[in-house]
Each structure stands twice: as C-alpha cells, then as structure tokens.
Amino acid sequence: MLLTLMALYTLYIFIKIYAAIMEIGFVSKAKHEKAIILSPSHYLKAAHYKIASQKFSLVSTLFEFLLFIAWMGFGLRLLDEVVMYVENETLRALAFIAIFMAINYLSSFPFELYQTFGLDKTFGFSTIDAKTFMLDQLKSIAMFILFGGLFFWAMIVIVNSFEQWWLYGFAFSFAVILFINMIYPIVIVPLFNKLSPLEDEALQASIEALLSKAGLKSSGVYSLDASKRDKRLNAYFGGLGKSKRVVLFDTLIAKLEKSELLAVLGHELGHFKHGDILKNIASSAVMLFIMFALFGNLPNVLFEQLHVSNGAQMVIVFFFLFSPVLSFAMMPLFGLLSRHNEYKADEYGSECESKEALCAALVKLADENKSFPRAHPLSIALYFTHPPLVERLKKLGMSL
Fold first, then answer.
1. In the chain, how many domains are there?
2. What CATH number is given to the structural domain containing 219?
3. What domain range includes position 131?
4. I need a labelling partner for 279 at 20 to 30 A (CA). Which of 84, 111, 343, 364 fits?
5. pLDDT classification of 150: cutoffs 50, 70, 90
6. What pTM value is reported for the model?
7. Does residue 170 share a domain with residue 49?
C-alpha cells in the first residue's frame, strides 16, 4: 500500500515537472514569433515572466517532493514519537497537527518570500513593503491558530466518535467552507484590505442596473485598495446569500474604461446567470466527498508500514499530503467544464456592453497582468480554468 501511494505521488510530481519543462520550451520558442495581442515589448516581457514563473515552479515542485519523501520516510514516525507523551488523546492529536503545519509553513516561507520580493518585484507586480507583508503573515497565523485549531479539534472529535466518521467529516467540512465563503467579504477581507463604497456614482448606478438585469442582489459595490500590495487587475463577486458584494480592485478601476469594466462585470454576472456558481459548489462538494471517502477508509497496513499510530491526527495529515494529488487528477475534467462555462460567460458579458468592450478589457487585463497569450496544450489541459486568450478573442470575433 505504501509503495503504491509513493508511486502515485511520484507520478504526480513527474507530470508537473514534465508539464513545466514543456511550457518553458514552448514559450521560449513562441517568444521569438510575431507578437500577438500584446505589443512586441510587452509580449516579450510576458514571455520572460512566464518562463521565470515556470522555473520557480520547477524548484518548488522538487522541494515539495523532497519534503513529502522526508515526511513519509521518517518525519511522521518521529513526530508521532515526540507527541506520544501527551496523555490526552485529543491534545496529542492537536499537537501532532500543529507541529506538522508549522514545519510545512516554515519550509514554504522562503518560497513565498522569493515569490513576493523576488519574482513579482522584478516584473513590476508586487508593491508590498516588508512591514505590510509581515503583518499579513501574523494575521494569517493568528487566524489559523484560532479558527484552524477549532476546526481540527472538531474533526478529531468526529474521527474518534463515529465509525463512519468520513461522512460526518465531509458534511462538517463542507458546511465550514460555505460559512467561510459567506463571511469572507465582510469579515476576512477587511482584516487585510480597506473596502470603500464606490465613489463614482454614475459607475455604481450602471453596475446596479447590470445586477438588477441579471437578477442578482448584492449588499453593495466596493473598491478594494489592492494597489498597496500588487499591481494586478481583478474584480470578483464575494460572499453568499445576503453577504454578496461586488468588489473592484482599485487597479482595475484606474486602468479600464467604464464600458470595459462593465463588460468584465457582465462576464462575472454571466456565471451567476448560467448557474455556474452553484455548479462550482456542487463540483467542490463532489471532489471533497471523494477525498473523504478515500481517506476515511485507509487500510491499517499503511499505518503499520509507516510505523505510526492509526489516530485521527494521522488521517488528517494524510489528507493534507495526498489531497493535492487527487485535486490534480480531477483538474483536467473540471478545467474542461470551466473553460466551456467561460465562453458562455464571455457571450453574456459582451451582450451587457459589447464584444469590442469585452475584447478591449481582456487585452488590457492580459497586458497589465503580463499574461502570455500562448500556452502549451498540456498546460492548458492540466491547469487552465479559462480558455487561452487567443481563443476567447477569436470566439468574440476579434481578428488577430
């Protein structure tokens, strides 16, 4: 059993590395071709950013594999021995999970530092200073200790209390995910960013007209001060039920014309109109259910081969170690469905304003976010939730 899991994880890592190498080779060749969508200088810069990102991904993936080997080879057994002196079963499980999470966090921290202050600074994305970065980290750690601690305590109790614990664990976890999505825009976002009511009354009136046309009720339209951390453009509908909010990055408001911004929001409203949000929730539920069904029925021989105790903490840690593999395996199917939905949302967004406005907005988004317009077919199949920009623009009738 252990060898099978190790082989599956190794295959997962191999595919990620192979896909990254293929993407680097593809973009390295494509950058010398005639520039499309972007200006020649921006086209080349986007290619360089893509290559640098893929190289960084290669290094982080290799480290991920080494850390996995360390955990499976001796780490879990040593950690099990360290916490065995804690007499209370629940506290022992919490201590195990806490140390496991802390080691993973500290191990990944240098990569996050490089991503923020190395890669993103070099290519002109990151605007965050060291003080804001560290405050963000401390806030995240505090929230994880408080809410994560409560979540893991509840999961440990569920695992130890029910024979078919994975069914109850799935229901509880999914309920928590829905709750977090509901409170995210009104509780979590304000801890990190300033949300302000939209000052442009004419723009707000146009947005509210779009919402009304789509039958979507929101609790307001807000501008988010994203520029203090990053220059990328974005917008989203956050929350569930009465907590739904329209959130526009200040970078987006500054860069897009009114018609372009309304076309982007129209695209997002297209997802709501077509029921994509409910479909995504249902897809997430299916994925989560499959994961719980698998991890809730791990054979005892696996724990024996690893020389660890068969406790709630070990099951939860296995979930964290192997859930990326399962998500990766399911991603091609979910990505295919998502790309189909994106075309439909583009169609709705163009009807809200015009195809020309949406095309102009997509080009500006690609330009500002340094999104290279070409990609290797394997990367598209494995990772893309949105169709390549070239295909989206062609579908909207733009000649390239």
1. 2
2. 3.30.2010.10
3. 2-195+269-395
4. 364
5. very high
6. 0.88
7. yes
